[in-house]
Amino acid sequence: MYNHYVVNLETSIDRREHITKIFENTCITPRFFKAIDGKFITDDDRRVDDDGLLRLGEKGCALTHLKILENFLNGCEEYIIIFEDDIELDSRFDTYLPILVDFVKKHKKACSLALYNGNNPHKMHSVVDQHLSIRRSLGFSGTYAYIINKEAAKNILWAQRPLHFEIDSWYTYMKLGLIRLYDINVNLVTPEAPNLASTVDIRGTRTGQVAEDLGRIKDRNIKKIVNKFTFEQKVLFYRQRINKWFWELMWCK
C-alpha cells in the first residue's frame, strides 16, 4: 500500500465515485482526505496572510495540502503521494509508480516529483527506459499528482504558514531555494476529467484585479518569506534570481 491521500471535498460525491473507479484496477486503494472548503474561510483567518492574492477556492486547496504535509511529517513514512480527485491515469501508471516512489525515497535533499510532464525548462536527470525519463525541472503547475519527501514538506510548511501564495507555485519554492523539482517526460496522470467541474473555480473569482496587481502582491508576499531567511539563505536566493535568465536559456524547453 502506497502512502498517499486523495483530496476530496465532503460534498463532492461524484468526484469520490470517479476516483474510486479510476483506481479500481490499480495498485492503489484510495485513501481520502477531507478537503477544507474555501467558502468557510473568513477574512480574519490567521492561517492566511495573502493580502488579497488568492480566491477562496485557492485558499481551501492550499490549506488542505498544507494539512496533509503536516500529518505526513508526524508519521514515519519517507514520502507521500498526493492526488486530487479529478484525475485520469495512463495505462503505465502501475508499472512506473514504484520506480518514481523509490527515486523520491532515496533522494537526500528536499524534493518533489510531478507524475506528469511539467512542460517547463528542464535538464535530464536519469533515463528509466525507452519510454520514461526523470528530469530536473525549473517548475511545473498543479498539485493534482505529486510525490514529496519530508525535507520538502518541512520547507513548504515553513514558507506557507501562514499562507502567502498559491500552493502549486512550485517555481517559487525552487527560486527560494527550498526544494528541488523533478518531473517526467510522459503524463502518467492528467487533471480535470471532462465531466467534472473545478471545485476551486466555483468558490468564487477575482473581481477588479489585473495580472500586474496580483504580481506585485505576490512579490510582496515572497519578500515576507525572504525576510525570515538566514544570511546563507538570502545569498542562495539572490544568486538564483541572478542566474534565472541563464537557466531558462540553457535548459531544454
Write a structural description.
By secondary structure, the protein is α/β, with parallel strands linked by helices. The protein has one domain: Spore Coat Polysaccharide Biosynthesis Protein SpsA, Chain A (Alpha-Beta Complex). 37% of the residues lie in helices and 17% in strands. The protein is built from seven helices and ten strands. The strands form two sheets. It has an eight-stranded mixed sheet, with helices on both faces. The chain has a two-stranded antiparallel ribbon with strand order 4-10. It is globular and about 50 Å long.
Instruction: Please list the strands of the largest sheet in the order they lie side by side.
Output: 2-1-3-8-5-9-7-6
Helix run count: 7
Largest sheet: 8 strands, mixed
Order of helices and strands: EHEHEEHEEEEHHEEHH
Protein structure class: alpha/beta
CATH topology name, in short, is Spore Coat Polysaccharide Biosynthesis Protein SpsA, Chain A
Report Rg: 18 Å
Apparent shape: globular
Strand content: 15-25%
Query: How many β-strands, per DSSP?
Result: 10
How many structural units, i.e. domains?
Answer: 1
Quick synopsis:
The chain is α/β, with parallel strands linked by helices and 253 residues long. The protein is built from 7 helices and 10 strands. It has helices at 13-22, 56-73, 93-106, 150-159, 170-175, 211-226, 231-250, and strands at residues 4-8, 32-34, 79-84, 88-89, 111-114, 122-127, 133-137, 145-149, 180-184, 189-190.
Fold blueprint:
Elements: E1 4-8, H1 13-22, E2 32-34, H2 56-73, E3 79-84, E4 88-89, H3 93-106, E5 111-114, E6 122-127, E7 133-137, E8 145-149, H4 150-159, H5 170-175, E9 180-184, E10 189-190, H6 211-226, H7 231-250
Parallel strand pairs: 1-2, 1-3, 5-9
Antiparallel strand pairs: 3-8, 4-10, 5-8, 6-7, 7-9
Helix pairs in contact: 2-4
